[in-house]
Amino acid sequence: MIPQEIGIVSGRAHLYASLALPEAPRGLVLLPQAGGVHPGCRHEYAARVQEQQGFATLLINLISFRDPQNGNLQNNVPLLTQRILDCLAWLRREALLAPLPCSILASGEAVPAALRASAQRDAQVSALVCRGGLPDQAGAFYLETLECPTLLLFGAGDSHGQASGRRCQEKARRHCKIQIIPDADREFTAPPHFETTTHLASQWLLSHIGHFGHIGQVEP
Predict the structure, then answer these.
(1) pLDDT by position in tens, the chain (length 220)
(2) CA distance 63 to 65
(3) Distance between CA atoms of 118 and 166, rounded to whole angstroms?
(4) Pairing outcome for strands 150-155 and 125-131
(5) Are 182 and 149 in contact (CB under 8 A)?
(6) Which of 56, 112, 127, 204 would be 138's cystine partner, CB 3.0–4.6 Å?
(7) Are strands 125-131 and 176-181 parallel, antiparallel or unpaired?
(8) How would you classify residue 7: left for phi > 0, otherwise alpha for psi between -120 and 50, otherwise beta?
(9) What span, in angstroms and rounded, lies between the C-alpha atoms of 16 and 34?
């Protein structure tokens, strides 16, 4: 299966995305990134693993090539949130994609924005997995209104992230689970640790597919 390169407009930004649509997908996983997405990168590997589980995937870079390089947009949570919301709106307009149960797999700087967007689109997002990052930066209001089942993954060496995850878990009213990867650092630098998080994400997404009874649900 060869992913299709597409563009999604968000405000004045044109965002690069890669869509992979297998035959008879059981759902769709949105993988928002606030950094580089290039052939052979780890984010692309994560998308391929989800596709092996029967998911369509939309891997998108929330930072446009035309964005200011010195604007620190990776930490602009409201802006990144709006760009994820625009991606979700685009999915709902696509006839082949709109019926699919949608989940989000976010990492690093995209994590707080993914949490905010999921809280605002709780009827569209079935499940959420966050790898690293600082989830409590989503803000108390959004965490308290978050509905979808959420898995937070941290390396054992990421004490700052774990503390943020615990604060997030205290605010979230619905099921929010924290899982620590032994011997892993904050960036999951060693390949086995990154692969572990990717497969844990697959298990979580599969177990919560169609959590809100989306039209066109396909049982795993």
Answers:
(1) 788 999 999 998 899 999 999 999 999 999 999 876 554 578 889 999 999 999 999 999 999 888 877 668 888 999 999 999 999 999 999 999 999 999 999 999 999 999 999 999 989 999 999 999 999 999 999 999 999 999 999 999 999 999 999 999 999 977 899 999 999 999 998 889 999 999 999 999 999 986 543 333 333 3
(2) 7
(3) 18
(4) parallel
(5) no
(6) 112
(7) unpaired
(8) beta
(9) 11
Residues 190, 163 contacting (CB under 8 angstroms): no
What is the C-alpha to C-alpha distance for residues 39 and 30, in angstroms, rounded to an integer? 17
What is the distance between the alpha carbons of residues 205 and 36, in angstroms, rounded to a whole number?
A: 24
Task: Retrieve residue 144's tokens.
Answer: 């308290």
Dig out the tokens for 92 from the structure.
Answer: 């709902």
SS3 for the chain is CCCEEEEEEECCEEEEEEEECCCCCCEEEEEEECCCCCCCCHHHHHHHHHHHCCEEEEEEECCCCCCCCCCCHHHCHHHHHHHHHHHHHHHHHCCCCCCCCEEEEEEHHHHHHHHHHHHHCCCCEEEEEEECCCHHHHCHHHHHHCCCCEEEEEECCCHHHHHHHHHHHHHCCCCEEEEEECCCCCCCCCHHHHHHHHHHHHHHHHHCCCCCCCCCCCCC
